[in-house]
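pls read this protein.

:::
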Amino acid sequence: MEKSLPKFIYITDDYAGTVFLKNSIMCDCCQKESPYQYNGPVYSVEEGEITLCPWCIHDGSAAEKYAASFNDIYDESLEEAIITTVCEQTPGYSSWQDQGWAAHCKDACVYHGDASAQDVADASEPTRQKWMRDYEQDAESWDHFMKGYQPGGDQGVYKFHCRHCDLIIFNWDFS
């Protein structure tokens, strides 16, 4: 029977299925065989590539062993436990420049992956307003930058969901 992935609070199961590849590996951290290999960013003082299983990320042992983090979160008003969970126990995502984690309602948000073109086209007014405030842009800029958006292009739009008020938040960057 195949072992299922651990449940991560701040990413969807769908995203977990893309950042953990089905690939039998020996985890550098726990030295155990794993049916899944982490395929995301690791920020560490350790030289070279580190092969990790999902369980060593989930329990924080990889972050501890390699003085590593997987994400950045810039909202310093969050409880330390939330920051630790996001930075040291949550798989990261790849972005063009800065993979800062979205926060809202005094909590980290859940990452869904790259926003789809439909997500952007259907963005609610509160989502658009939050993006404009976060990036110091106006409605005309939203229209300019988001027109014709496609995942994997020269700009990244990363979809987060507030666990408390259901607001969709888009983090954004360029190549």
About this structure: The helical segments are 13-19, 54-58, 61-66, 80-89, 117-121, 125-134, 139-146. The chain has two domains: 1-92, 96-175.
